[in-house]
Amino acid sequence: MILARCEGAARTFGSGAAATVALQPTDCEVRAGDRIALVGPSGSGKSTLVHLLAGLDAPTVGTVHRDADPIGVVFQGPSLLDPLTVVENVELPLLLAGEDDARARALAALERLQLRDLAEKLPEEISGGQAQRVAVARALVRGPRMILADEPTGQLDHVSAERVIDVLLAAADHAGAALVVSTHDPVVAARLDTRWKMASGRLSLEVPTWPR
């Protein structure tokens, strides 16, 4: 089952002489059960493609079709809301969607990631690795059919990075969800089955796999 499809989707920022083409016209599909590593250097267009697939941005030309609801998104940088406690951050997507049992489901998501004891702490009171795992819990709390993670380990040490990837893979397996992880880390990419490569805004779907 196709969960998301780009058909000639491209994204340009700015206009005229100052225009920057972040993503060239792109055709790709994300299917249920996919485990995709989106690899390439910083500035190659990985984040732009992830944002289009997630519906966080719209293509300048072309179309993006989505048949995945809900979608879970994990960002690279700090994304927790500072005034809210850990559990309040995790339950926020449920509250915004008007879903029931938000607090209980948020606590259960934290429990699965072994973060239950941090529930009442503020983001400033936890480590960077813990904050990223809380962000993962928030992305997974609604049981998404597609999980998109944009450089989720880019600011983490090796141990924390491995733990985040473990959690993402386990959550995708548990929910039967597709998982797309953008990364420039070959160790992270080696954990996923399929490689998409970005270079100068162009996507290549057939590239050599990273050695396992």
Automatic annotation (TrEMBL):
Pfam families hit by this protein: ABC_tran
Domain ABC transporter: 4-207
Membrane spanning stretches: none
Keywords noted in UniProt: ATP-binding, Nucleotide-binding
Superkingdom as given in the UniProt entry: Bacteria
Single annotated GO MF: transmembrane transporter activity
Record GO cellular component, one term: plasma membrane
Keyword ATP-binding: yes
InterPro entries from the UniProt entry: AAA+_ATPase, ABC_transporter-like_ATP-bd, ABC_transporter-like_CS, ABC_transpr_LolD-like, P-loop_NTPase
Annotated SMART domains: AAA
UniProt signal peptide: none
UniProt cross-references to PANTHER family, sorted A to Z: ABC TRANSPORTER RELATED (PTHR24220:SF685), IMPORT ATP-BINDING PROTEIN (PTHR24220)
Protein name: ABC transporter ATP-binding protein
Organism phylogeny: Bacteria, Bacillati, Actinomycetota, Thermoleophilia, Solirubrobacterales
